[in-house]
Every structure is written in C-alpha cells, then in structure tokens.
Amino acid sequence: MLFADVVSASQAVATTRSRLAKVEVLSDALRAAGPDEAATVTAYLSGTLPQRRVGVSWRGLTDLPTPAAEPALTVAEVDDALGRLASLGGAGSASGRAGAVRDLFSRLTDGEQQYLRNLITGQVRQGALDGVVQQAIARAAEVPEATVRRAAMLAGWSSLVAEAALRGGEGALAGIGLEVGRPLRPMLAAAAPDVETALGQVGDDAFLDGKLDGIRLQAHRDGDEVRLFTRSLDDITDRLPEVVEAVLALPSRQLVLDGEAIALDASGRPLPFQETASRTMSSAGVQRLREEVPVTPFFFDLLHLDGTDLLDVPASERFELLAELVPGSFLVPRVRAVGPAAAQEFFARLVRDGHEGVVVKSPTAPYAAGRRGAGWVKVKPRHTLDLVVLAVEWGSGRRQGWLSNIHLGARDPQTGAFVMLGKTFKGMTDAMLAWQTQRFTELATEGTEGWVVPVRPEQVVEVAFDGIQTSSRYPGGVALRFARVLRYRDDKSADEADTIDSVRALRGT
User: Fold this and answer.
1) Cβ-Cβ contacts under 8 Å for 217 (sequence gap 6 or more)
2) pLDDT number for residue 407
3) 319-324-330-334 Cα dihedral, nearest 10 degrees
4) pTM for this prediction
C-alpha cells in the first residue's frame, strides 16, 4: 500500500463531520492494507507511530528537502525508515539522523511530507478518534464492535487489534488477553461535583481512594523483569529505578499493579506536579534526578497475580489481595465509606494534605480496562475564574469550520493589559461553538484568514480548572491545569475579569 493512500484517507476523514463517513473511509483503507500492513496503517491513521518516538523534533523538520513529484514510497518503506531513525544513537547520531530525515523526506511528495511531519510531531488531528477507528476495524474485518473494543482494552493499541482482526477474525480477537509485560489501557473514572453525589452514583457501601496528582503508573513484573508504563502506555522503566526496586521487593514473581508515582516533600505533602513529571521527560541523568526528586509509588489496584488474571474479580477482593501483597507505605490512602459525613471528612483531609480529592469506588466493580466505568467516580474541588478571550483557533476534525480553541487571559491591574494563562477547547457544545464562531468573527482584529485569530479582549468566559502551575511558556509565569469552559459571561465586562494577582494567589491549589 502506498503511503500516499494513507494521506488521502486521512484527508478524507478530516473533511467530513459524519462519523459514518469517517468509519467508511477508514474501513476501506484497512481492507486495502490487509493484515500485513493493518497495524501500521491503523497507527498512522490514528495519528501515532508504531515506534512511538523516533528522536526527531519539530525543529529537525523545519527545513525539508524539495519534495518528490509523484508518490512512490509504500507504507512498509516509510515504517522501515522510521524504525531505522528510532534506532540511531550514540556518537554521531545527530548528523546521521539529519541525513536519514533528508533521505526519507526527499522521496515524499509535498502532501506526504506535511502529513509525516505532523505524524512525527503528534499534530495529526483529523477526527479519527479511537472509537471511530475501532468501529472501522470491526467493519473491515466483519466482526462485532464489542469484541474489537475489549481486545483493544487488553492489547493496549488498536493497531495490534486491527492486524489480528483482519488476519484471524473474531477467533483471533478472542485470544487477546492480559499479557504481563504488555500494557493494557487503564480504567478511568467518571466525575461528580461532590462526595454525596458520587456516593449516590456508586452506592453508600463504597471505597474512597485518595486521588493523587502524580504519574499514572502500571507496573508489570515477570520474574526479575519489571516494566513501568504511563497512562498513555509509554515505557518509562529506565526513568524510575526506585519504583522498579519497590516492585522487585514484593513477594510475588508475576503481577500487574495500577497506581501513581508522586514526588513528596520532607513533610509528606506532594510537590507540584511539574516536579513529578520531570522524572518522565528523559532517561538522561536518572540517578541525579532520583536524588533531587525521588518519587514514591502508591498502588491502588491489582490486575494479575502469579498466573491469575483479576480483571473480572470484584474490587473488594482485588483490594484485599493488594493489601496482603503491598506494604502500607506503598498503598494509596483508602477507607471504606461509613456514611456521607465520614466520606466528606476523608475528602477534606486529602485536600488539606495537598492531594486532588478522592475516587469513590464500588466494591463489586470489575476492572473496566480502557473505559470510564460507572464503578469509579472522582471528586475534586472545583476552582473557577472569569477570564478574557484573547484569541481563538480554527478547529480541525469534527470542529472544522468553527472557531474552537480559545486563548485565556487574566487582567493585569497595574497596566490594564491581559496576561495569557493558556488555551482550552474543553467543555464546548456544538451550540457554543456556533455562537463563538460568530462572536469572535465580529471581534477579530486582523481578519479570520489565519489559523490563530486575534480578537479584541472584550468577551469574558467562566472556566473551571484543576489547579495553577508554574510555567515558563506564558508571560505571567503561571498556567491553568485542565481548564474547561463553563459558560460565557455576557453579564461581565473585561475590566471585571479576574486579575493575574488573584490567579497567582491560587498557585498550589
């Protein structure tokens, strides 16, 4: 299959808002790829690389060679070239990598160059979300969607499932299970505004876990080998040696644990998330980072133990086995709910201790890998700010044609100017997107032709967020974490927006 066919399919997906049309395009592409190339094509159309990273940054792709006149490279040839790029290392690797990039891109057309550059830098956003891709796999292989979804949860990546489905159909998918050493998709939590609501959803008899603001961590042990995976299934084993040692000290030879790794200060309070996250950025200087920012694992679930899969075992039994296996110093704070008042007190204590909140968990729930299951409900304090929209970006995929991602600013009381705090496209309904497209077209100061549309700083928007973090990216030195739009405030003028001083005062919340 030509790489150009993948580019054409991606463009077709990007130009339609219809889910059915996207599925049709993707399933046709997978049939054309066949089982031998299905995994690679699925990864490319999902906006990912089978190699995950190839050691090339955006800067290394700014000066591309003259493109080829006609498409010639196959998917296999592109994948092979990227594999060689990913394997380069050691002395002289920088020049070797630059030469390999030039050689590969010189054999691609202009459209192929742009697509591969976006693929390498994680900028492919054409609406081929995971659910759409899995539906396309089911259609291409003529197998039930539910079978594809479960296989993807356990295999981790839809690309592996695509190959199995096209090669062996439903029987091959049924053979995909939890495999120690291969990450599976983590179970996720729904959200509730308060503890009482969460208990109403889960039931009065529930566990409450502390919600820690760390690195979601999946630990796999098979004998003397340990592998650590993030929420996005990246392997970070070599970056957290203290966690590897903790897992090797456990009295089990084969296990899969779910938890968090977090950096704490001398008093046991969590350090800012950025300090914890610094441990995952690079494998360079690991020993120095370990001394400067040591992390502690806190495990909250057990998915496999010595040859027995526990995914479908009720949570209460998994938690009991976990408590027998893992020392208390490495267990997440946990209580069994004894009524709303006690649950609220536990929540308040966790927040006072600097943590994010709690996760309310049903004692009967299985581990729903890859899903936001009803058995887990998270509760966090909600912070809100009234900010001003400074600019807006045109959307892509299903938001193509709408002004979507908004740039958020707080008022500087000294100068009257606005200080940017970040961007968000979260929380916007279709009606809101349509409204803001018209509104910001009217407020545009330089026309609407560019991808980023600057606007007059007049529109106030109320956003919720999870916290404030230090940031060198924005001029105010701070940025919002997980901002999402609640509503536009036509009842407020820009000079009534929250100030940068009030935002800085919230740092650490």
Assistant:
1) 228, 229, 230, 240, 243, 258, 259, 260, 261, 297
2) 96
3) 40
4) 0.76
Position of tokens 């039931």? Answer: 203
Q: Specify whether 22 is catalytic.
A: no
Q: Strand ranges (DSSP E) for 181-283?
A: 188-192, 207-211, 215-222, 225-229, 254-263
pLDDT tens per residue, range 257-273 = 999 999 999 999 998 87
130-141 vs 158-174: helix crossing angle, rounded to 10: 40
Name 376's Cβ contacts closer than 8 Å, sequence gap at least 6: 187, 188, 189, 190, 359, 360, 361, 362, 365
The size of the chain, in residues, is: 509
What the block records as the tokens of 496 is 């009534």
Which of 22, 211, 378, 380 does the annotation list as catalytic?
211
pLDDT digits (tens, 9 = 90+) for 456-487: 998 999 998 887 888 888 888 888 888 999 88
Neighbours of 212 (CB within 10 A): 26
- Asked if 331 contacts 378 with a C-beta cutoff of 8 angstroms, the reply is no
Comparing C-alpha atoms, which of 298, 300, 299, 318 is closest to residue 309? 318
**Partners of 333 in the beta sheet?**
none
Asked if 264 and 270 count as a contact pair (C-beta separation under 8 A), the reply is: yes
| pLDDT of 398 | 78
Q: Give pLDDT, residue 124.
A: 78
pLDDT value at residue 58: 75
For 505, counting Cβ atoms within 10 Å of its Cβ (0-12 exposed, 13-18 middle, 19+ buried), the class is exposed
DSSP letters of 85-116?
A: HHH--STTHHHHHHHHHHHHHHTS-HHHHHHH
User: Distance between alpha carbon 154 and the CA centroid of its chain, in Å?
Assistant: 17
Closest CA to 312 of 191, 188, 170, 150: 150
Could you count the other beta carbons within 10 Å of the beta carbon of residue 146? 10
Hey, is 120 helix, strand or coil? helix
Q: Which residues pair with 334 in a beta bridge?
A: 209
